[in-house]
Amino acid sequence: MARTRNPLPRLMLHAFLIVLCFIMIFPVLWWFGASLKTMSELSLPTLFPEKAMWSNYSDGWKALSQYTFTHFYLNSFKLVITMTVLTTISSSLVAFSFARLNFPLKGFWFSMMMMTIMLPAQVTLIPQYSMFHQLDWINTYLPFIVPSALGSGIGGTFFVFLLVQFFRGLPRELDESAKIDGCSWWGIYFRIVLPLASPALVTVMIFSFLWGWEDYFGPLIYINSVELYTVPLALGMFVDTQSAMAWGQLLAMSLTSILPVFLLFFFAQRYFVEGIATTGLKG
Fold this sequence. Notes:
- The chain contains 14 helices and no strands.
- It has helices at residues 8-34, 55-61, 69-100, 106-115, 121-134, 142-149, 156-168, 173-180, 185-196, 198-213, 217-222, 231-240, 247-256, 259-278.
């Protein structure tokens, strides 16, 4: 007679996970509920209002007199997508060089690059601003685009290290077979390494998009014109231009600002998890 398994431990585990999940998403639930409240209801200890104020979203979208949030979203998408593509390309090229090529002082230059991770961004802020000012790049997107194209943008060193670890896990025999067939290093990079490294590349793209989308400090330093403002700067201007703070509209707009990142991670999470799980494994 087969023994019947006790379902109690599994039920307790599921109950614990449900409670833990609720604790983790409670701030988002409160955030959503508060975005639908009136000013008088924000101080009440309730999660959702009695009557949802969906007008907070429509009013907040056009709360700034000169531009709507459509303009700021387009600015953010144009800038962040450009940065993401350029960062992925430049980081993969540098990582491929360190992982598969041999050149003088390779170990030294890799160590120097890794040391920049320990260098706080505040240390290089003034020299970078002075250099960009002399190049007449202030109030343009060039201080973000050019470093991304050179592999020194937001998270550039981390992305190079991540891809180096992934590339090192690919069998060297693939390179040797390709060379026998007459393939150059460029061919190996485009035809062999990049297709096999798609999970790691997607991981880099997700992180790059996330950090670029939520960057407030960089645009605050280099962008002066409201016409070029990104979504984080627009939210900051939203706060400054309200004589009587409309917290419901502000919370509504800040909630919509996380939707692109949420959707990106939702649809690319399989590649993201695969890229993180396989990085550093040896072939």
